[in-house]
Amino acid sequence: MFENITASEIAGYTVGALLLSATISASKLDSFVSISQRSSLGMCKRCGDLKMIACSKCKGSGLIKQRGPFDFITAVGEKQDFGLKATSPSSSCMNCRARGHFSCPECSK
Ligand SMILES: [Zn+2]
Ligand SMILES: [Zn+2]
After folding, report:
1. Which of 15, 66, 72, 98 is the most buried (most CB within 10 A)?
2. Co-location of 24 and 38 in the same domain
């Protein structure tokens, strides 16, 4: 009986791992072939019809993490409270005005 439970649990983990790896490889593949695929599908080459482009400066978060000698304090501060932006070592991204993305210039034409 114990062996049966263990086997089903292992099967569950295996399926989960397979699904996870499939998702990861799919997203990797997507970024790999995306541009040629998008153009063949008639999708926007810049954004893939998302109508927006993630900000490359802040990686879509809208916040720039301050790096320097206070890196340790930065890490602790981020864990403690995200709401205190005034005292947070992260500053809002000026590139995208803290939105984290731009509207796609190709789609807004
Ligand atoms: Zn930004
Ligand atoms: Zn677009």
Report:
1. 98
2. yes
Protein residues near ligand 1, an ion, with CB under 5 A: 55, 57-58, 93, 95-96
pLDDT number for residue 16 = 74
Answer whether 93's CB lies under 8 Å from 55's CB: yes
Q: Yes or no: say if 106 and 65 are a contact pair by the CB < 8 Å rule.
A: no
Ligand nearest, relative to CA of residue 103 = 2
Same domain, residue pair 102 and 72: yes
CA distances (Å), origin 15, targets 11, 66, 83: 6, 40, 38
**Average pLDDT for runs of 10 along the chain of length 109:** 70 74 59 63 84 90 74 50 55 92 86
Q: Are 25 and 71 within one domain? A: no
Identify whether residues 17 and 53 lie together within a single domain: no
Q: What is the residue range of 65's domain?
A: 46-109
